[in-house]
Specification:
By secondary structure, the chain is of the alpha+beta class. It has one helix spanning 2-73; strands at residues 76-77, 84-87, 96-101, 114-120, 125-131, 142-146, 149-157, 162-172, 186-193, 197-198. It starts with a helix and ends with a strand.
C-alpha cells in the first residue's frame, strides 16, 4: 500500500515537472514568435511609409518637370533670335530659364510674345511667371513646388539643325532635412526636349 502511494506521488511530481518545463518552453517560443511578428510589422510599416513618401515626392517632382517640359517644347525662335534664355551665373535668386511663347499666334512678330520663366530661390521653391522679357521671377509669382536642385541647359547645332533642352530636377520629401533613403527619400527626374518652334533659317 505504501509502495503504491510512493509510486503515485513520484509519478505526479514527474508529470508536474514536465508540464512546467513545457510551459516555460512554450512561453519562450511564443515570445520569440511575437517578437518576430512585431519586427516584421514594424519593418512593413516603415516600408509602407517610405513608399508613400517616395510616391508623394515623385508626384510633386513630375508635376514640376511636366510644367517646364511643356513650355520648353513650345519655345519659338530662330538662329538669330533664339527664344530660350538661361542664366546660370550670379546669386541663386537671379538665375532663371525662360522660354518665349507665341501667345498671340503671330509667328512673324516676336515683340508681342510672352516669356514663361522659372526660378529656384534660396528657399528651394521653384517659381514660374509670365513676363514681357526674360528674367528671374519674384517671390510674388506662382510656386510650382520645392526642389533642392534645378538645372536647365540649351544646346543647338546649326550644322545638324538639331536643338535640345535638358532639364533636371532633384527633390526631397522634406527639403529642410538631409537625404535619408528610409525616412527622407530623394527623387531625381530628367527630360530632354526638342522645341518644335525653333527654326535654323
Amino acid at each position: 500500500m505504501i509502495n503504491k502511494r510512493n509510486k503515485e506521488e513520484s509519478w505526479g511530481r514527474e508529470c508536474w515537472g514536465m508540464t512546467l518545463t513545457e510551459l516555460l518552453v512554450s512561453t519562450a517560443l511564443i515570445g520569440i514568435v511575437m517578437l518576430g511578428v512585431v519586427s516584421v510589422e514594424y519593418a512593413s510599416k516603415r516600408s509602407q511609409e517610405n513608399m508613400s513618401r517616395k510616391s508623394i515626392v515623385t508626384t510633386r517632382t513630375s508635376a514640376m518637370l511636366l510644367h517646364i517640359v511643356k513650355n520648353a517644347a513650345l519655345a519659338v525662335g530662330d538662329v538669330i533670335d533664339v527664344g530660350i534664355r538661361i542664366r546660370t551665373t550670379g546669386g541663386i535668386n537671379s538665375r532663371y530659364a525662360c522660354f518665349r511663347q507665341d501667345i498671340p499666334q503671330t509667328p512673324g512678330n516676336y515683340s508681342d510674345d510672352t516669356w514663361v520663366c522659372y526660378t529656384r530661390r534660396t528657399t528651394n521653391k521653384v517659381h514660374t511667371c509670365n513676363r514681357t522679357s526674360p528674367g528671374a521671377c519674384t517671390s510674388f509669382t506662382t510656386t510650382l513646388g520645392t526642389a533642392t536642385a534645378l538645372s536647365v541647359t540649351y544646346t543647338a547645332d546649326r550644322a545638324t539643325q538639331t536643338n535640345r533642352v535638358d532639364i533636371s530636377i532633384t527633390s526631397l520629401y522634406d527639403d529642410s532635412a538631409p537625404f535619408d533613403p528610409d525616412g527622407n527619400p530623394r527623387v531625381i527626374m530628367t527630360a530632354q526636349v526638342n522645341p518644335t518652334g525653333q527654326s535654323f533659317f
